[in-house]
Write a structure and sequence with these properties.
By secondary structure, the chain is an alpha+beta fold. The protein is built from four helices and three strands, in the order αβββααα. A three-stranded antiparallel β-sheet has the order 1-2-3.
Amino acid sequence: MLPDLQTLMKEAEAMQGRMEAARTRLGGMILQGSAAEGEITVTINGLLEVQKVSISVAAADKYNLKEIEDHLQVAMNMALQMAQAQASSEMEKASGGLNPAKLLKNLQGFGA
């Protein structure tokens, strides 16, 4: 037996509320990637927004520009990976275990 439209709408509204709450939590999360023994750090929130980039004086003295760029890339990627994992976990919880990206991917070509 299929649920009625009103029940589906209520469930969709509840999920939308959970997704918005998850987005708010992600905005408050602070994640940090580091490189060069912690002398270069990148801090982002769970929404993948850069909050801070820090290069110590010691790193500026120790490394040339290319090395600093390479270390920054490592720190940024580390922070992004952590944030993406957190975002995926939060959104999966909020959607009741559904993975919206996976669901959309599976629906591509449906009815084509």
